[in-house]
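Please, structure for the following, as tokens.
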Amino acid sequence: MGNNKKRKEKNHKKKKRKATGEQTLALRYVHEWVFRDSLPAFPAGDASDDFAPQSSHKIVDPIVFELHCHSNHSDGFLSPSAVVERAQRNGVKVLALTDHDTMAGIPEATETAQKYGMRIIPGVEISAIYSPRHEPGAGDLVHILAYYGSSGPSRPEDLDNLLLNIRDGRYLRAKNMLLKLNKLKVPIKWEHVTKIAGDGVAPGRVHIARALVEAGHVENLREAFNRYLYDGGPAYAMGNEPFAEEVVQLICHTGGIAALAHPWALKNPVTVIRSLKAAGLHAMEVYRSDGKAAGFGELADTYKLIKLGGSDYHGRGGHDESELGTVRLPLASGYQFLKMARPIWCNAMKDILQSFAKDPSDANIEKITRFGIPKKSKVCHTVSCGKDIVDLCLSSWLTSDEKEENEFQAIRLMLADTVIGNGVVKVFG
């Protein structure tokens, strides 16, 4: 009897591992994109058995997405390269570096990721404020995650101008915070804060908190925030944050995916989510390292938003920080994210390449290559033909069918005899 019971339990577990048709479709779609450079096509046999088609990558292993993390280009402690290397050790296959109000770390992350076959999604976490004056939630600080294709936003100057204005406001904001701290008899020198932030990095609250720790005013970062720097705290100040609705619209306008970060931190999340959905919001964070945030999965369903999540890793250390890759995105969420994002990214890429085809200038080359061009070959080389840039740009980001779309073929023809002005385009590898 005991052996029969164990045999039944074993058979039951085997049945549970059988994928549905929908799961198999999602698995194929995600797997094809993540492992495009190194994976042959799925075998013709039944891929649903135990999620395990025969290939160089084990489908039984989950594909780990990390869609929210920071480097020392904003308020993180590690360089973009170190973030990528740590993520690789943790099994991450797809990483979005989402520094606050800057994409300056993306090229370094992209170049490092080439060594590991990791997908980098160019991202940014944009600081904003919820604007309606007479509704609950007015004045709420909102963070919007933007995710772009390999060439970034289709109108980069629009996004760059927005981010530059926010970063300029961070300098003024930090100075106002120091003035408030000085009035509280907690003196901090401006030079101390900017040294901690690093060259070219707009100072934020974390940098001021670190200065408070180093000056001996508090014991740790948590105390700095709890005593002085929390939202509305005695040393808190606002910057040049744009309206959240306008940020979402800009992300959509520039070929990105807009996702609401950590909605559980909002005072009135329902009001904010409803307004941002009307502005074009695609997704919201629901999953955390401790599981799904209570109630927010239902909110995402109500407003038909894709459920995402990430560690929000900063590299501070300590038991209270989620490690890279610890927020395991369900297969269905990864599939829905890519299913929505890829056509949008594809259209943005068309816009960028069409601009280049019409005007193969250095400025338009920069739009294509600002985050680097992944390639399969390990031999570093240069290209001088516009058509070559198109092929390199598409090689590791689009499916074979997407590459053969009429618009891309037309761009190739336009650039077939184009020679790039003064020279060369660097290709990472």
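The two ends are 61 Å apart (CA to CA). The CA atoms of residues 356 and 363 lie 9 Å apart.
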